[in-house]
Amino acid sequence: MKIVGLSGSNVGSKTRTTMKYVSEKLTSQYPHVDWTFIDLADYTMQFSDGRNYLDYDGDTAYITKTIMEADAIIIGTPIFQASIPATLKNVFDLLPINALQDKIVSFFVTAGTSKHFLIPETQLKPILSYMKAQTVSTYVFIEEKDFMNKEIINDDIIFRLDALVEDTVMLTDTYKRIREEKESMYDF
């Protein structure tokens, strides 16, 4: 099972801090998972210009191909100006329409205020649905007050992140078995 963690911004520390926790949890609890972490702050990406994702090179090719090869994706994103970051939207724009078909996608959101709690519902979920992702039904919304000194200090957030990781792995296993059973019905 290949799971990709995608930190959807090239600035800030809260999303990276949370993804670090998710990464540690996933690798310690599920050593059989092939985990790849992509922090967009560490890459130089080209802007989408409508080409097929296979026609890009460098960091852009690595990111798109890694996502396309994944069985599941855990997205971490901050909210900037009441929206998802342009860097994350660019990743979606680089991929084909059905790029997330048969993939489990879960996510967490970091925001400076609770006033942004509907941004994932109005912006991120519609994009994921359009791209045919099977989304984990609940996501984790994390506010500024849940962090101190680049650490998560809210136990409820830790509990919900643990559940997000577990749900992602369980749903990925379940959907894989369902697809295998369905494919075994065909004689070719």
From TrEMBL:
Keywords: Flavoprotein, FMN, Oxidoreductase. InterPro entries: Flavoprotein-like_sf, FMN_Rdtase-like_dom, NAD(P)H-dep_FMN_reductase. The keyword Cell inner membrane does not apply. Pfam families: FMN_red. One of its GO terms (molecular function) is oxidoreductase activity. Residues 1-143 form the NADPH-dependent FMN reductase-like domain. The keyword Oxidoreductase applies. Homotetramer. PANTHER family: FMN REDUCTASE (NADPH) (PTHR43408). This is FMN-dependent NADPH-azoreductase. It comes from Salinicoccus roseus.
